[in-house]
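Q: Could you write out the predicted structure for this multi-component system? I'm mainly interested in how the pieces pack against one another.
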Amino acid sequence: MNRRELFKHGAAVASAVAIMGSIRDASAQAQEIPIGIVYPMSGANAQIGVDARHAFETAVNIVNAAHDVKLPTAANAGLAGLGGAKIKLIFADHQGDPQKGRAEAERLITQDKVVAIIGSFHSSVSNTVSATCERYTVPFVCADSSSPSLHRRNLKYFFRPAAHDEMFTSAMFDFLDAQKAKGNKIETIALFYEDTIFGTDSSNVQRKLAADRGYKVVSDIKYKSNSPSLTAEVQQLKTANADVLMPSSYTTDAILLVKTMSELGYKPKNMIAQAAGFSEKSVFDAVGDKLAGLISRASFSVDLGVKRPSAKYVNDLFRSRADRDLNDNTSRQLMALLILADAIDRAKSIEGPKIRDALAATNIPGENTFMPWKQVKFGEDGQNVDASPVLIQYSGKGFKTIFPAAVAAGDPIWPMNT
Amino acid sequence: MTQETQIPAQDLPHDAALTHFAKSRRNQLIRAAVIFAGIALVPLAVRDTYLQNVMILTLLYAAVSQCWNILGGYCGQISLGHALYFGIGAYATSVLYVNYAVLPWFGMALGGVLSAAVALLVGKLTFRLKGHYFAIATIVIAEIGLLLVHNWDYVGGALGIQWPITGDSWATLQFARNKLPYFYFALVFLIVTWLITFKIEDSSWGYGWRAVKDNPEAAESLGIEVFRSKMAAAALSAFFTAVGGGFYAAFVAYIDPESVMSFRFSLLFALPAVLGGIGTLWGATLGAALLIPLTEITRSYLGGSGSGIDLIIYGGLIMLVSLMKPEGLLSLFQFRKGRPA
């Protein structure tokens, strides 16, 4: 233990000396700025971590090399504000466990001296990681956890550029209202959600908005995630036959839901999904033929490239690395790192409080992102309220943005099944 | 046999075997004092937060595994549902602190009492089952508990309970960066559970439990009330497991059903004792000292790669031990042979 200790401290001291040394002659020698990435790298959600790695590494490439694209920190190699310093990622695995996330965040901060942390997919883990960051005055950028409770904890070091579930769900109901205004009959809604923090949060908001806007919830079904069978649940859905089915499910359950619906001969009139499984390539590989007309909320869609040239550019970069298109999660992860790099660049410092202040002062217009957002500007609570979500529809081959009109690439197919 | 043990062994210096026994008991205590004092000094040398964190978890799991060992090791009732008691402790402490500002110290005690009561109820239902059937029943009951908490909005449901971020205080057991208070709490907790186990080894209860473990029918015929013995062991074990759960909640400052009540925890409490030597004084501590740092450190330094090497090592180790040394790592050492011949 002692020898390891000695070695570790030695290494820490050496790297600290190296960092300090390089600050002094930053203009001559580019320093490396460590940023912590805390994701599930093993266990049930390992694929999320593997994809995230591609997204973050693509973002590092955009920051560290010169790119001719309208994105923060892309134009020149490295961070101009820190004498062309490069960023470096340090990955940590939390396995979906809040305790492990907390321990890993602490390790990254105290051992690797990361200047900020990005995480963490699971809302429960983002909860403990961000609380740890707060204690160490290190900024936490929440890339893809969408639980609304996260930004309501009065944390000073918490920032979420992307939308949370209430914003996503509002977009769905805005869309329904718009369809109704066009003369389509939409009266009843069926909620179908898993029993996790994600499903609970999602369904709570849907239930509330449905009541507020005068839609009747005719079926309200909570199921155990990773369920071996959904037959009973689908029978209920089929009986209720609501105008819109709103599932909040991850990959395996999403596949099982669609298969079971097909076996029981239930064709929902319309489906609007809370992304998750319904934005995963594997779901469309497995049951895509039964999902033509499915609508999902999203943070990103490849056809955004029509309106935002940078979206195509970034997607091509990501594609060459990961051999797939950016999706709901990877786009948010990639953008989160660019926003953080922009703040570090403006802070001209690697000290937590200074980066925090720079993040709080962030003001990136929508056209300087590759997302459909209006702009990136954080409120007092660290939430970007202008991260406008979009709705995308699966055509049988690919996705098309259908809402809101400002970024839509075409009209929706409605209803999905007659 | 049970009659003899009701008289403290030290009071019978004439019997050579008993003298030997008393001496070995004393030696055990001295050895324990030296070991625990040594552990207490470790953080003075190891100041790295991450390693302190690993040590805290090691001590905590050692202590909770020691609690599990009371029921699983000494009384022979293999429970794979101890996450239920851990969860009750964590939830009682968190709900009382966050909603009613009751200090976690009281929360842990109340959680312990509640947990013991639940253990008695569970015992009433399951102690007529034997062997594997009992183990399966405990898994099922713990899963029921998990589902209930998942769907119970009063305790936060799937959203869990977040502890407020406050200043450092022993009263609320909240320390922002300093790990030492947690370390010493966990160490004292381990010492307490160790002392209880030590006391049990030479008490009529302890002899009764081991008799029940070896052969319930024979124990019954000797006048041991098997059912009551099991109930007592279960309540004691559950009480301290819940205290561990309360501490865990204060330490992590956030709990949700999956992070304190999932089956993984039930396994994690049984494994150190099984690995180190089931039904022994030092088994749980030794097992935890090997298992927890190994899993934590391999995950931290190999897990970021996404290759799962850490999990392969973990699984491989357990297979190796169960194949080579089913009676536990302690059997590698001779010093545990302190019992009278």
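A: Regarding packing and overall arrangement: The first helix of chain B runs from residue 2 to 6.
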